[in-house]
Design goal:
There is one protein chain. The chain contains six helices and four strands; from the N terminus they run βαβαβαβααα. Strand 1, helix 1 and strand 2 form a beta-alpha-beta unit. 38% of the residues lie in helices and 8% in strands. The radius of gyration is 17 Å and the shape is globular. It has one domain: Creatininase (Rossmann fold, 3-Layer(aba) Sandwich). By secondary structure, the chain is an alpha/beta fold.
């Protein structure tokens, strides 16, 4: 009899403002779409996961919700305890504010838990496709707008944007190579809530980036399941 590894995929996002053109749950929608694509490849189980993450940097904007680090950790621990029968856990995270804590927990559970952070696994591919200069990709800019145009076009309201919505902040860009600030608040840089340039977002770019996300995720998951 062949022993089949059971694994669980957990999408993780946030509920925070994404400028006037993207929905509050953009991060979760992206993570969930990728999770469902991965699920089909690995025949894994997927759960609803975590829809509200740690988003204190966006709390100056209405409708943003954020939980504490303790609450976030508790949710992860509860999931792993509740679904303990699954031998492997794959957390797919699309919100930067969750990265530090997720990576910290992964280090303590290296053979049990894999964390896939979308911005981290796509970083090498961003510079190959992007057309905005450094600062055009961070929050609700070229990358996320492109993905949403490809995944959920009806949820994107490009007509609500204006030239005032564009805000380049180079040191918050994934392709920025120098020292980054540890703590920052969106309102200090952008009154629209956007950090980047959504006008560079296209469905075509979104499709290419999504294909790379799936491909790179598959490689990392294959390596993880061999442990």
């Amino acid at each position: 009899m062949i022993f089949m590894i059971k694994h669980l995929i957990v999408p993780v996002g946030s509920l925070e403002q994404h400028g006037p053109h993207l929905p509050l749950n953009t991060d979760y929608l992206i993570a969930n779409r990728l999770a469902n694509e991965i699920k089909a490849i690995f025949k894994a189980k997927i759960i609803k996961g975590i829809k509200i993450g740690m988003s204190p940097e966006h709390l100056s904007f209405k409708k943003t919700k954020s939980i504490s680090e303790e609450e976030f950790i508790a949710q992860i621990e509860d999931i792993m305890k509740k679904y303990h029968k699954y031998l492997k856990f794959i957390f797919i995270n699309a919100h930067g504010g969750n990265v530090r804590v997720l990576n910290s927990i992964q280090k303590k559970n290296e053979t049990k838990m894999l964390v896939l952070n979308t911005f981290s696994i796509i970083k090498p591919e961003l510079s190959k496709i992007r057309t905005s200069k450094i600062g055009g990709i961070c929050h609700a800019g070229e990358f996320e707008t492109s993905l949403m145009l490809y995944m959920y076009p009806k949820k994107v309201k490009m007509d609500l944007l204006s030239e005032n919505s564009i805000k380049y902040v180079p040191f918050l860009d994934p392709n920025y190579e120098n020292v980054r600030p540890m703590n920052w608040n969106t309102i200090d840089y952008s009154s629209s809530g956007i950090i980047g340039d959504p006008y560079h977002g296209t469905l075509e770019k979104g499709k290419k980036w999504f294909i790379f996300l799936v491909k790179n995720s598959r490689v990392l998951i294959d390596q993880f399941l061999l442990q």
